[in-house]
Design brief:
Blueprint: E1 4-5, E2 13-16, E3 25-32, E4 35-44, E5 47-52, E6 76-78, E7 85-87, E8 93-95, E9 108-111, E10 114-117
Parallel strand pairs: 1-4
Antiparallel strand pairs: 2-10, 3-4, 4-5, 6-7, 7-8, 9-10
The structure holds FE2/S2 (inorganic) cluster.
FE2/S2 (inorganic) cluster (FES) is lined by residues 55, 57-58, 60, 79, 81-84, 96-97.
Protein name: Nitrite reductase/ring-hydroxylating ferredoxin subunit
Organism: Sphingomonas leidyi
Pfam family, one: Rieske
Length: 118
């Protein structure tokens, strides 16, 4: 099994911003020589927020269905397992079993209409 990475190099192009519908989230898996990185990106308008796909509660992947990272109303990130709720802006847990903990940020940005790692 390849190692699970917690960082990516800068300037990796993930794809066009329109890959993610506004207000939705998308999973990304990056295969690198050193191992595999699992993260997800939430789009809000022209802004993107990226996090490692790792719940702050039991360190499980947040979503048990593809790209299902958000509450039905799109207002928060929600873990599929025990319902931890996280703010999209800063990854702070504001509900569920790990209030006060934080998702680990994956620095991403939009440049010339493309989502790239920072
Ligand atoms: S593993 Fe995410 S809430 Fe428990």
């Amino acid at each position: 099994m390849s190692e699970r990475l917690t960082e990516t190099p800068p300037d990796v192009t993930l794809g066009p911003l329109d890959l993610i519908p506004d207000g939705k989230a998308r999973n990304f898996v990056l295969e690198m020589r050193a191992g595999r990185f699992h993260g997800f990106v939430v789009r809000r308008g022209e802004t993107v927020h990226g996090y490692l796909d790792l719940c702050a509660h039991l360190a499980l992947p947040l979503s048990n269905r593809l790209d299902a990272y958000l509450t039905p109303d799109g207002s928060h990130i929600q873990c599929s397992w025990h319902g931890a709720l996280y703010r999209i802006e800063d990854g702070a847990c504001v509900g569920g079993p790990c209030v006060g903990a934080k998702l680990r940020r994956w620095p991403v940005m939009v440049r010339d209409g493309m989502i790239v790692t920072a």
